[in-house]
Amino acid sequence: MIDFKSAQFCAAYGTKEQLPPCDKPEFAFVGRSNVGKSSMLNALFGRKSLARVSNTPGKTGTVNFYSAGDVYLVDLPGYGFAKQPQNERRRYASLVSGYFESRAESLEVVFLLIDFRHKPTKDDLNSINFFITTEIPFVIVLTKADKLSKNETEANRVMFREQMSLLEIEPDAVKVVEFSAINGLGLNELRHIITQLSTGEKEKSDE
Fold first, then answer.
1. Could you report the per-residue pLDDT of 111-169, keeping only the tens digit for each?
2. Between the chain's N and C termini, which has fewer beta carbons within 10 Å?
3. Is 207 part of a structural domain of the chain?
4. How many domains would you assign to the chain?
5. Could you tell me if residue 203 is inside a domain?
């Protein structure tokens, strides 16, 4: 059973060798630095500061595990922050790739966070390609949706679909959730996805 509101921080791991064995279903969260992962996790947990929100993009360099009943929610280091030293970026890359390589038995889905206000970055598109190539299930979450006007939202939906088509992906083939940690847009949908997958239920398409 999942209990989002009783979620607790478990541990942070800085190298792939430190990662724990797979003993619960896991739901991972990844995206560009400052895309709003910590704010999203806090919204899911119904807490204000369980996941630390940093004012310094790229500061978090660990894989952070949070236990929510019978599942783990896993916060992966943000990518794309150029000011980090090269050796740190290499460590991050090794840590994240090591996480994905070791979680075949436990990883249910990855939530890939992309800032809805902007065109997807090269790193965002590379991440999409990586998940498709490796056949890792993923959901795209368009964050900071509250920052857009109605007209901007419509325009950015069109732009995002165009970017997906450049990857030769049918836009409707990938689950996309528009999200705001401020007004709760998409929050129930994300909780529903996690709950369904953790209980072995399948998403019903177009129903």
1. 999 999 999 999 999 999 999 999 999 999 999 999 999 999 999 999 999 998 888 77
2. C
3. no
4. 1
5. no
